[in-house]
TrEMBL record, chain A:
Record protein name field: Amino acid or sugar ABC transporter, permease protein
Source lineage: Bacteria, Bacillati, Actinomycetota, Actinomycetes, Kitasatosporales
Pfam families named among the record's database cross-references: BPD_transp_2
Keywords: Cell membrane, Membrane, Transmembrane, Transmembrane helix
Primary residence: membrane
The keyword Transmembrane helix belongs to this UniProt entry's keyword annotation: yes
UniProtKB/TrEMBL annotation, chain B:
Family: Belongs to the bacterial solute-binding protein 2 family.
InterPro entries xref list: Peripla_BP_I, SBP_2_dom, TAT_signal
Signal sequence segment: 1-24
Entry protein name: Periplasmic binding protein and sugar binding domain of the LacI family protein
Region (Disordered): 28-50
Organism: Streptomyces graminofaciens
Subcellular location: Cell envelope
Residue span(s) of domain Periplasmic binding protein: 54-311
Lineage: Bacteria, Bacillati, Actinomycetota, Actinomycetes, Kitasatosporales
Major site of localization recorded for this protein: other
């Protein structure tokens, strides 16, 4: 009974590895297919947008708008991608954006103008990242708990600083950065910052020792330690990096909205995690893709844009958004496993 | 047509007269209480009376308007020598707020003022307080059962929409095929639906106006900017915008500024200081805002004090305070903004 079935099976199993391309090639190909499927989703959305609202959607200003709105969450997602790649999670990103934005826009710092606001936003972001990193890397607290605690306390502190009121920015140099006069060859400065952060993030993850260490820590922390990587220090740097990204994002949000409010960055943690996962970064760590994350963010922003242009109400938007997330991941998994 | 206009005029006229009468009532408080007719009806006034301890439980002040609510309650209570205010930490968590109110019941405060994070969810604890003999002044978000409170005071969300709609209607009444858009607040709140309903009902009086788009934001600056930027992109031409909330309006105004558009008029909602200042300056699209006055918290303290002292309300013939009081959502524009400036919240 067993004889007729098992031998041929064993035979084919032995044949496949020989005829298959080398492992690295499969990996590159798979990554490409993943990226292509994301581009496909994005292209499909663009077609939908173009069909439903040709005049409004296929318009330079709309492209500028979509990219601008992707910038803030995009910068946060780049930092998040590193953290998730290392097998961690950062639930505090939205709260850090809120805290950094209100701290930077309180009246005291507004006296120091542009530099004061930028500096404060970045320092607060890095500071929060440092606390997260120390708690996780050296305090031995799991990332989920440590960053959850940061989420709560940073939001609380943001509320305390503002007393619930909106901090309106009166520094013209900051406000001007969000105006159309400031566009560089039609590109808003916010989008430029997003592009630079993305480029640096991509280089850092794919072309440096830092990036390889991040992947190694996420793949197998014990093996990474045995291979001579200082896992703790690496983790500390990663949460610092995420905090830095939040600080930059907070500054971008100040430019965009002309104000700081304790409700800023609401649910960024979920959006950033979702974008990274859709992009193809493994939630369990060991694999990360900046390109994928950025495409994930762009898909989200484009969906929101199409919904608003077609005047769909928020209940419909939420249902459709959920469906599209599932669809995107299914499409991606299908294409990734069939190759 | 003329008939319609005059009826509308009457509507506004009545509102203006009643507002005027209210003001007069406030200013001539002292002399009124000396009137012969009022002698046998004790009405609350500023003179110190029986000591009253008021327990105040509000939601977390994570928004300009809610913060103003807490401030108004505190400062009004502070202005009375005979009032002690027991205030709990604000919370948006139903269970926590129930616990806080129970603590106030146990402390045996004389009167409770409650602005529930969720009116329906806090009905039971309101009933509990009433059964314990502590009268409850329900502020703004209404309890499910009239048995759970002695008096309700709050804003008029439907009226906000109605008055915003009428203001916009009057501004655009000579315009053919006028297009109006709406930037609503959080769609999962009942009050947002009421505001939209009022707005739509008002616009029905103006057949030349069509509402062409509506998007919901989240009462935050960030969401206001994002949604407004999309709306501006979606609607290349419109004549008026009603924005439900001045806090998210900061973001909406920012998006409008960034788009470089100024070919429409905007009406806000709530009554933030920044909105009042912009209306007074009159250099942008924001021409008016419909009030949802945070002073209702101060009024709630007044009513609670009157309840505690067993008095009625000055200027009314009743012996007792009313069981419900809905504030008027006045339209504040350049003409009357100075009068309201002091009530603007940050």
């Amino acid at each position: 009974m067993t004889q007729p079935v098992s031998p041929p099976r064993g035979g084919t199993d032995k044949v496949t590895p020989v005829s298959a391309p080398p492992a690295w090639r499969t990996l590159v190909f798979r990554a490409d297919v993943r990226t292509l499927s994301l581009l496909g989703v994005l292209a499909a959305l663009i077609v939908i947008g173009g069909i439903t609202k040709p005049d409004e959607f296929l318009d330079t200003r709309n492209l500028q708008l979509v990219l601008t709105q992707a910038s803030v969450i995009g910068v946060v997602t780049v930092g998040m991608t590193f953290v998730i790649t290392s097998g961690g999670i950062d639930l505090s990103v939205g709260a850090i954006v809120a805290l950094a934005s209100v701290w930077a826009t309180t009246v005291a710092t507004q006296e120091y103008g542009f530099a004061g606001i930028l500096f404060t936003a970045v320092i607060v972001g890095v500071g929060c990242g440092l606390v997260n990193g120390l708690l996780i890397a050296y305090g031995g607290i799991v990332p989920f708990i440590a960053t959850l605690a940061m989420l709560a306390s940073a939001r609380g502190l943001a509320l305390q600083i503002t007393d619930g009121s909106t901090q309106i920015v009166s520094v013209d140099t900051i406000l001007d950065l969000g105006e159309r006069d400031a566009y560089v060859l039609g590109v808003p400065p916010l989008v430029l910052v997003f592009a630079v952060v993305t480029a640096i993030g991509w280089l850092l993850l794919n072309r440096t020792t830092f990036g390889r260490r991040t992947v190694a820590v996420g793949g197998n922390a014990e093996a990474a330690r045995l291979a001579g990587i200082d896992v703790r220090r690496q983790r500390l740097y990663l949460y610092l990096l995420s905090g830095l990204c939040c600080g930059i994002a907070a500054f971008l949000l100040i430019v965009l909205s002309g104000s700081g409010q304790n409700t800023n960055g609401n649910l960024y943690e979920l959006d950033a995690i979702a974008a990274a996962i859709i992009g193809g970064t493994l939630l369990s760590g060991g694999r990360g893709t900046i390109t994928g994350s950025v495409l994930g963010v762009l898909i989200f922003t484009t969906i929101t844009n199409i919904f608003a242009l077609n005047n769909l109400q928020s209940d419909v938007q939420q249902i459709a958004k959920g469906a599209i997330i599932v669809a995107a991941v299914l499409v991606q998994r299908r294409t990734a496993t069939t190759t | 047509m003329a008939h319609l206009t005059s009826r509308r005029g009457l509507l506004f006229g009545t509102a203006a007269v009643s507002a005027g009468a209210l003001l007069a009532g406030c200013t001539s408080n002292e002399s009124d209480s000396d009137d012969a007719a009022a002698n046998d009806r004790p009405a609350a006034d500023d003179k110190p009376g029986k000591k009253v301890t008021i327990g105040f439980a509000g939601p977390q002040a994570d928004h300009g308007w809610l913060n103003a609510i807490n401030e108004n309650a505190k400062s009004r209570a502070g202005s009375y020598e005979d009032v002690t205010l027991e205030i709990t930490e604000g919370s948006n968590d139903t269970a926590q707020q129930i616990g806080q109110i129970e603590t106030l019941i146990n402390k045996k405060v004389d009167v409770l003022v409650v602005l529930p994070a969720d009116g329906k969810a806090l009905t039971q604890v309101g009933l509990k307080a009433m059964r314990a003999g502590i009268p409850v002044v329900n502020l703004d978000r209404i309890f499910n059962s009239p048995q759970a409170y002695r008096c309700w005071i709050g804003g008029d969300n439907y009226g906000m929409g109605l008055n915003a709609g009428h203001y916009i209607g009057e501004q655009l009444k000579d315009k053919k095929n006028a297009r109006v858009i709406e930037l609503a607040g959080l769609d999962n709140l009942e009050l947002t639906k009421q505001r939209t309903k009022g707005f739509d009902d008002a616009l029905k009086n103006y057949p030349n106006i069509e509402k062409v788009a509506r998007q919901a934001a989240e009462f935050t600056v960030e969401s206001g900017q994002a949604k407004m930027a999309q709306l501006l992109q979606a609607q290349s031409k419109f004549d008026a915008l009603w924005n439900h909330d001045d806090d998210q309006g900061v973001g909406a105004l920012r998006a409008i500024e960034q788009s470089g558009r100024d070919d429409f008029l905007m009406v806000g909602g709530a009554g933030a200081l920044s909105a009042f200042q912009a209306i007074k300056k009159d250099d942008g699209v924001l021409k008016a805002t419909v009030l949802y006055p945070p002073t209702m918290a101060a009024s709630a303290i007044d009513l609670a004090r009157a309840l505690g002292q067993g008095k009625g309300v000055s200027g009314l013939a009743e012996f007792e305070i009313p069981s419900s009081l809905t504030l008027y959502s006045a339209v504040v524009d350049k003409a009357n903004v100075d009068q309201y400036m002091s009530t603007g919240f940050k």
